[in-house]
Amino acid sequence: MITPMAEPPTTIRDMGHDDLSMVSDIERRSYEFPWSHGVFRDCLLAGYQSIVLIRENRVAGYGILSVAAGEAHILNLCIEPELRSYGYGERLLDEMLFRARASSVREIFLEVRPSNEAALALYKKKGFYQVANRPAYYQANHGREDAAVLAKKLVMED
């Protein structure tokens, strides 16, 4: 009988400057129009809540959360391309929701490409709902792509 291999343990911790090259590499391999290394550096310098998911002693995903005036905004959430569909994105999202609640946030927002069906399914599963559409928000190969603006009310029992 073949026993399935257990998934390696993962941890989530604050992102540090030493993580930026791995984060930038994942970003470049994930998107046609990626954030630059400098944008990630600026997020750390601005004090955004920036986290990484560590798997086998390597960065496997990351999230950037901005918190202000009782609201939070998920600016970026990404998992290493070959590690998607294992629940790591959901783990990062859960940590971001936890951190938002810990900061007394009442509502959290994000933008997502309507063509990103996997992300939309995850956000819907977690109780996000569409509140607006931002026309021509994202750069695309042929023109621009709209963004679906999603929101979620945060209460302590979530």
Rg calc? 16 Å
- Stretches where pLDDT falls below 50 for ≥5 residues? none
The ordered H/E elements are EHHEEEHEHEE
Q: What is the number of beta strands?
A: 7
Characterize the structure shown:
By secondary structure, the protein is of the alpha+beta class. The protein has one domain: Gcn5-related N-acetyltransferase (GNAT) (Aminopeptidase, 3-Layer(aba) Sandwich). Helix content is 28%, strand content 39%. It is built from four helices and seven strands, in the order E-H-H-E-E-E-H-E-H-E-E. The protein has a seven-stranded mixed sheet with strand order 1-2-3-4-5-7-6, with helices on both faces. The longest helix is centred in the middle third of the chain and has 15 residues. It is globular. The N and C termini lie far apart (40 Å). The model has no long low-confidence stretch (mean pLDDT 92).
Task: Provide a compact summary of the structure.
By secondary structure, this protein is of the alpha+beta class.
Tell me the layout of helices and strands.
Layout: E1 10-14, H1 20-30, H2 37-46, E2 49-55, E3 58-68, E4 71-79, H3 88-102, E5 107-112, H4 117-125, E6 129-140, E7 143-153
Parallel strand pairs: 4-5
Antiparallel strand pairs: 1-2, 2-3, 3-4, 5-7, 6-7
